[in-house]
Amino acid sequence: MHIIDVKMQNKNESSFPKKYSSLINCLKFFALNKEGTVEEVAEFINKDYTTAMRTIKKLGKRGLIRLERLERTNTKGREKKIYRITLRGLFLWMIIERRDAEENFEKIVSAHKDKLLTFKKWQYFKEKGLAEYIKAKFFESLSHYEFIEASFPLLMKLTYGDISPTGSSFTFLQVDEEALAKPADFDILQLNLMTYPPEHVKRNFKNEWENLVSLYKAIEEDYELKRFKDMIIFEREREYDQKLKAINAWKQFLRVSGN
Length: 259
Fold this sequence. Notes:
The protein has 259 residues and is mainly alpha-helical. The chain has 14 helices and 2 strands; from the N terminus they run H-H-H-E-E-H-H-H-H-H-H-H-H-H-H-H.
């Protein structure tokens, strides 16, 4: 297993409890690597096995880390546990450690290209000259997730032990990755702007217009991206159609009621 070893930044670490640093650095390990073991996490965060396991459990109890799979080792009867960050956990770390995330963005995309369609198509966007635009839109989209609005307080609660795992078994909150990935890709690809006339978008997004047109053309030229766009547009059409039907139903109801 290839592990990316990026030196942890010590800035401001002294102003936070050591537990907080362990939590943040554990998330960083999994953000930079597709997956890993407790031993690998312990080495990365410079802690012993017990501390690393406790940290993973705490993050797992809040759906930020999950047990990915078990691998049989050479030792008879023993299995190695492989853990991975969830998309929610990845977004959380990238929000809290924005600068670090920006510096290591390509490593993160490479490690987690199966989590987002935009990550999967990163090389395609680079070839189209849209990498920087997509990166900017990704970080802009992170501010749209209300479920992370209390991200810092959540980690502080974990730090001070308000949430402690019970028992020896590893448990975690089930998180629907697809339900999170879909709106993220929707935001990053700027598909929400397709609900407005082109003239309106051009007038209100003058500085982005050329990038938007290039992005939409690139989407049309790629099968997976176009399929995703068509699915989203169909859902929006159905949603607006239902709203129009409801409005017309109310108009008819009020006309009948008034007679």
